[in-house]
Amino acid sequence: MIVLLSILSVVLIVGFLISIALNRSFWPFDNFPMYSYPVHKIRYPIYNDGGLSLFTLLDTTTDQHRDIIAGKTIYSKEFRPLDRLEIILLLMTNGLLSRIDYDEENRHKHHFRWAARDWSTEDSGEELEKALKKVLTFIQKYNPEVKKIAIYFYQWNDIWADEVDPWKPEKSEMILEVGS
Amino acid sequence: MIEAWNEFWFADGSFLNLAISRILILSYFLFIKMNDRAFRLEQWQAAREHFQDYWRKPGILHYLGIPYLSRGTEVTLIWVWRLAIFSAIIGLLTPVACLIAFVLGLYLLGLRHGLKLHHTIVPINFILIALALGPSGQMYSVDHYLGIQYFPEEHLAAMANWSLQFIKVTMVLIVFATGVAKFRRVSLTEGFLKKGNLSTLLRLHEFGYFWVHPIIPMGKWMRRFPILEASGALGTLIVELFFPLALFYPITQFFFVPSFVFLIFSFRVFQGPRFDFFNCILIVSFMPWDWFIK
After folding, report:
1. Where are the domains of chain A?
2. CB contact under 8 A, A81 and B110
3. Cβ contact (<8 Å) for A70 and B208?
4. Which residue of A has its CA nearest to B218?
5. Mean pLDDT of successive 10-residue segments in chain B (294 residues)?
6. ipTM
7. How far is B6 from B1, CA to CA, in rounded Å?
8. Cβ separation A138–B51 shorter than 8 A
9. β-pairing, A46-48 with A51-59?
């Protein structure tokens, strides 16, 4: 029995040390990287030199567009049990980043490329639409009244400015809209 | 070396501390953590099926080639898993219940990580195996009331110590991992210790589209007081990196455990994320209950 327990102890320690050393998760072993990246290298949302860029989803069924990502809690009722980050990551790894206009003057250009460094973000024009439609049909399970949704790209130029409203972006741009 | 190993893992342990750890940690997990909307396993199953083209199998399920089970089978297993944890809490067939919960948990909780890994529940499977292979039902249990004994009498105290140490080592490795992850990205020009990093991190959480939000926003305030930011970042890193000392020099646990508990509390208040289950395990497993209860 003592030998068996000792082996388990070794497995526990070695499993975690491998995960830590390789900086990878081998669930249930984990490297716990939460909040360890420098802020300007967090893959999402993208922060650079005071500016912040992120995506959101709007219910565009009616003219009164409703944000279905933002909220006090991470779990929007439309996505349960998924959280908003999971929905955005799903879209980001399926072509969303390739839809951003990488204007040379755009301060976020390099950081989007950095964020996309090890993701399959190539979009032949169909992946993002397919993924977004999947999100729409998922939402409709809980809220059949949602008929159209759109991805919006939001930017704040300076998050430290006094007049900044954390709930209202300074720039917004529609990336893609799908309907059922 | 072997002597030190045996002394660390197999000295005489406290049945009382282990029993209280079993009851409090598993109760918190089953009645509080699993009632969080993030852990409704039946909904995870539906989400997985809907997003099956994008769903990735986590670690052990992938490497062992464990297939996804049918909806009916999963629903049955979810209830068996919950019942097993409840049985472990009341101490009925304790080791068997913990073992069943451990095996089923590897699969069921793995379903939670299909689109991204959720870190907060990682310790539970290690805790269940620790409770399964130790005399965790030796006190405050139905097993004890019925006089059921699962392990040889002569090894009981050593096994109780192993179980408690296994839980503590799990938590120490987790805290240490968080420190290493931050430290490996520290350089002269960037990283967790760089001026402006922590205050920006706090400020970002104040935006409506971030994943969690602080109770008390203080990003801007911290930016105005760099000494506060520097001490916060450095203090966090020191506590996380040196936390293993709490295992080898028990006196230091009176500094490291409350410090980390305070850090987790601060993360929730000033930043937003909840790591409450970590706090529960740390407090319960490191607390010398036998000092207070005779």
Report:
1. 1-34, 37-179
2. no
3. yes
4. A160
5. 92 95 96 83 87 83 86 93 97 97 91 81 93 95 94 92 97 96 90 92 89 91 94 96 95 95 95 91 94 83
6. 0.91
7. 9
8. yes
9. antiparallel
